[in-house]
What does this fold into?
Amino acid sequence: YAGSATFTRLRDKIEEIFKTPFFLPAHQGRACENILSTVFVKPGDIVPMNYHFTTTKEHIARNGGAVAELVIDEGLNINSDFPFKGNFDLEKLEKLILDNGADKIPFVRLEAGTNLIGGQPFSLQNAKDVASLCRKHGILTVLDASLLQDNLFFMKQREEACKNMSILEITQKLADEMDIIYFSARKLGFARGGGICMRDKQLFEKMKELIPLFEGFLTYGGMSVREMEILTVGLDETMDEDIISQGPQFIKFMTDELKKAGVPVVTPAGGLGCHLDAKAFLPHVPQDKYPAGSLVSALYLASGVRGMERGTISEARKKDGSETFAQVELVRLAVPRRVFTLSQIKFAIDRIIWLYEHRDLVGGLEFTEEPKILRFFFGRLKPVSDWQHDIVKAFKNDLHDSL
It folds into this structure.
């Protein structure tokens, strides 16, 4: 499967969309992060970003660097109507560069559809401003395009300068500003894989030797021929506004309905999923008892709906063993693209509202097994008391066996 014609089609499709002639394949997005961090990050470095993702932060830390989160203040405001809460704070970015020196900053990372703060987008203008500032100081600009399709949709919908552009035109305007683009194909392209794209051959040469070491040969990088074919078609579909609009529309419906019922949610509705504000949902559960994790557990008991904790459990402990408390405690209810019907969304809404009416029954959690790295993947927790039985009893009393 090395050297297949499929890889050539994929590479050509990526160049057609992003206008980047150089492409390094990888088996998924975090593999791209490993390559980027290994090549560019050294001890003492700082990598500014609008907001971190869990694996990104860990890869940078493992290479001796640190993350600086510079999202605008509005980005952490749960209830807001600001359209681009994923924007970089340009003043903070310039101050960081001036205070630490450009030589301490290997690249600036811009994440499309900021995962951990509610799938919130950045604007095309903000991306241009970030790239301009980086060029001024001789710093690389890196785009994590994993959740780009939602970000593109919001640019088209919410940004005046993009309203008359096609999705492809917006994509190329954004790509023109970036030195490196990487992505997880599970999000961008509907496939299992990933890759790193660039225009500069020198950057390509710096990274290419690590692909055979960590991923596979340069013409597959851990992806099967089947997955590369799927990704080639999926990237085309990502440029189709009708296809990429479905997820955000369902998420907006879910967010609006829950908000009408008084359930605390992140607004405006972002991409990826509907996000519950666990701190406001469970104000009686302290942060060291993991309210977002508790809410995920309670929701599963009340509905069978599997949410994802995006709060303190998703952070790593400090060196002294104390907690790193998350800035927001969210439950992500991801909406799979082209999978759910509206009736399934309505079912989830109905059960979330029921749980909100019984929220006082929910208690906290504590770890019984706690890995040191990315603990939210393998860690095991238990209820602080027997509150889970109270949830089940109330459920059976109200809804019987209607799960």
